[in-house]
Amino acid sequence: ATPPKRFYKKTSILGSDDGFEVVLDHWKLKTPRGTLFTVRSEPLAIAVATEFDAQKEHIERSRMHLSALCFTAIDNPNNLSKLDMVNYLLNFIPTDTLLFQYEDEKDLQELQLSKWDPVIDWFNHRLETNLKKTTSLTPSAVSEGDKLKIAKHFQSFSLESLHGLIFAVDTLKSIVLACAVMEEMLSVEKAVALTRLEEDYQLKFWGRVEWAHDLSQQELQARLAAAVLFVHLNCSENIVKQKFNM
Question: pTM of the predicted model, to two decimals?
Answer without folding.
Answer: 0.91
